[in-house]
Design goal:
The longest helix has 26 residues, at 68-93. By secondary structure, the protein is mainly α. The protein contains nine helices and no strands.
């Protein structure tokens, strides 16, 4: 355990890890601002969060600042951010009197479900000595689209948007954008299965050899 912790925190004082930590700290700020009606400031915070997500990976690769802690912090920050966004929008839409919004709100719980599955699955794998798979291109694309769609929804979505007095996104357009994001998220979830099954298969093969 001591050796694992030492390996985890070796070389952890990096700019990418600081950006991931900032992203985690911005999560409650976003949630409180948006739920208290400060939607515009919440969108600003979300944009800042998305920028930290964009730059931490680029900096890590460009300056060779990839660390074991960073491999954990980055996906944790992503998952907590996406969970918070999904829950907050669900709670806001739950107050709507529009029947369309009342059924549409359930789509956001899919994002919550996906992240909970990833967190629980990752915890189980770590508990039995396996390493959760790194984000594939599908996961990166899904995360990028998710951030983009949610910024648009939070800025211009009917009954949600902070900037609706200037422009309101047509409801069908908002629904289509969110469903596209949900479909990409589902594809991203499926993309982790081959690596996961392979690790379990290799573990089983090693056990049989013993």
């Amino acid at each position: 355990m001591k050796e694992n912790l030492k390996a985890l925190f070796t070389g952890c004082l990096t700019v990418p890890n600081l950006l991931s930590l900032i992203r985690i700290l911005l999560i409650p700020v976003f949630g409180v601002l948006f739920y208290n009606g400060e939607a515009l400031w919440a969108v600003v915070v979300l944009v800042l969060s998305g920028l930290t997500d964009l730059f931490d990976g680029k900096i890590a690769r460009r300056f060779n600042q990839i660390s074991e802690l960073g491999k954990i912090l980055d996906p944790v920050a992503d998952k907590l951010t996406q969970i918070t966004i999904a829950v907050v929008i669900f709670l806001v839409l739950d107050k709507s009197q529009d029947p369309t919004m009342q059924w549409f709100k359930w789509v956001f719980l899919f994002f919550l479900f996906k992240e909970l599955v990833m967190i629980l699955g990752g915890a189980v794998m770590l508990a039995i000595g396996l390493r959760p798979g790194a984000a594939e291109i599908y996961g990166k694309v899904a995360t990028f689209v998710f951030y983009g769609v949610m910024v648009v929804v939070l800025a211009f979505g009917p009954e949600i948007g902070a900037l609706c007095e200037w422009f309101t996104l047509p409801t069908p357009v908002m629904i289509v954008l969110v469903i596209i994001s949900a479909l990409l998220t589902f594809v991203a979830l499926l993309s982790y299965l081959p690596s996961t099954f392979r690790q379990f298969k290799e573990r089983k093969h090693k056990s049989e050899e013993k």
